[in-house]
Amino acid sequence: MQKRIQKEWELTIGPDTVRLFVLKAKAISAALNHDYEAGSEHEIELDDSSHDSHHHDGLAEEEAEDLTERELRALMNDLNVDEAAELIAIAWIGRGDFDASEWEAAVAEARQRGAGRRATKYLLGMPMLGDWLEEGLEAIGA
User: Fold this and answer.
1) Domain that holds residue 32
2) Mean pLDDT, range 58-84, rounded to an integer
3) pLDDT tens track for 43-55
4) What is the tens place of the pLDDT at every residue in 105-128?
5) How far apart are CA 109 and CA 96, in angstroms?
6) Residue 20 domain flag
7) How far is CA 60 from CA 56, 63, 66, 111, 138, in A?
8) For residue 1, is it within any domain?
9) Crossing angle, helix 129-140 and helix 15-38, to 10 degrees?
10) Does 50 fall in a domain?
11) What CA–CA distance (Å, rounded) separates 82 from 94?
């Protein structure tokens, strides 16, 4: 865990917005982990001696998972360039790529890498996004 810093800047993205992203990202991650743990739940054997082990109730769960991811993707796509750069910087700080005292450098790096154009795809590709955003928020004192 990183220590909090006294910040000399104001966030463009609201901390409550980031917390919403944390909740949605963790819900997506938890759903994926549960699905992987279940393992054989989605296997279907094609020979006569095997049973169909696919649970059709899972279809409603899959739809809910897709809805959560679609919601998060839409919310992230609505961010402006500054907000997207800050969200990436928060994730990087939470992941340990930058220290909280390097906030401005992290935001500048995110902007340089084209945060606005590819931020959503990049962020949703992070396997522990919710945790990293949460830790990053805490580190910057938001």
Assistant:
1) 15-40+55-140
2) 76
3) 444 445 544 444 4
4) 999 999 998 776 689 999 999 989
5) 15
6) yes
7) 8, 5, 10, 38, 35
8) no
9) 150
10) no
11) 18
